[in-house]
Write a structure and sequence with these properties.
Blueprint lengths: L1 H17 L23 H17 L2 H9 L5 H6 L4 H27 L5 H4 L1 H11 L10 H45 L5 H31 L6 H26 L5 H11 L4 H5 L4
């Protein structure tokens, strides 16, 4: 019963979010279109991937045992919130459902930019999965494959894209510094030849640093999410979500939680209609 209840709550929460997301399910045109890359949205997508990784790791056996034996047993939690273990765990379930809703909404928004009609129908397919467990396109992967392949792939994307963000910021600082040096030299007209030679060398060195930095940025763009298509990114995310849902089911089944409707539905009503920016604006 607890397992079915969680599935129902996940489906209800996600379906409310998808009401605001318009999708296209037309088949491919006769002439294949060039898949567009995510570009600057890479940083936002990396944030979503990071949240998905953290959610998956939070549902591990070790963390679930720690939650049950340590976190909800803290004296402050007992005094301020409740002494009821089932109630505290149901709150954790409610937060889990909310996180799933936000992630599913964000992925659905990305899927509208895909060319693959199955990926564009992510919202419908995921709702079917949450409702009945149907997996017509074999998106579901096992826990072992999730840990050994998908999570590591997500972590690589997040790491490289985070590095790209820092290197692009460094490039911006260097280019701004060069601009300031040029302006300063234009204002300083009466200078000795030795002073001018020193400043010219500084400009040359700075220009060389910029060249190297641009090469590094280009290299990282090619390796990161920046140069991946919406289809590729959505495919990776879409295959990860069912595994997270299965893990959440295991959490509910393990503790046989009677998830209270008001614990979840209140969160759904309070957040109904949020857009993708609400779920991922804090990526960086």
């Amino acid at each position: 019963m607890a397992l079915e209840t969680l599935l129902l709550k996940v489906k209800t929460a996600i379906s409310h979010s998808f009401d605001a997301v318009r999708t296209s399910t037309h088949p491919h045109p006769n002439k294949p279109l060039r898949k567009s890359n995510v570009g600057v949205l890479a940083f936002e997508i990396a944030g979503l991937m990071s949240k998905l990784i953290h959610l998956w790791q939070a549902l591990s056996d070790k963390n679930m045992i720690r939650l049950h034996n340590d976190s909800i047993s803290l004296e402050g939690v007992r005094k301020i919130v409740s002494n009821d273990d089932a109630f505290l765990l149901s709150l954790a379930c409610a937060e889990l459902v909310e996180n799933l809703r936000l992630l599913a909404t964000a992925i659905s928004s990305l899927s509208t930019k895909c060319q693959d009609p199955n990926l564009r129908a992510f919202h419908r397919l995921f709702l079917d999965f949450a409702d009945s467990g149907r997996d017509p396109y074999n998106w579901v992967i096992g826990f072992k494959e999730m840990d050994t392949k998908n999570v590591k792939k997500l972590e690589r994307y997040v790491t490289v894209t985070s590095t790209l963000y820092r290197e692009m910021d460094e490039l911006s600082v260097l280019e701004s510094g060069l601009s300031k040096v040029w302006k300063y030299n234009e204002c300083e007209t009466n200078q000795s030849s030795s002073s001018m030679s020193s400043k010219e060398q500084k400009i040359v060195d700075l220009q060389q640093k910029i060249v190297w930095q641009r090469q590094e940025v280009k290299y990282l763009k090619d390796r990161s999410l920046w140069s991946r298509s919406f289809d590729t990114v959505t495919w990776v995310l879409a295959r990860t979500m069912p595994a997270v849902v299965f893990a959440s089911q295991s959490f509910s089944f393990r503790y046989r939680l009677p998830i209270r409707s008001d614990d979840v539905s209140f969160r759904v009503r309070a957040t109904e209609g949020r857009k993708i920016s609400s779920s991922s604006r804090e990526c960086y």
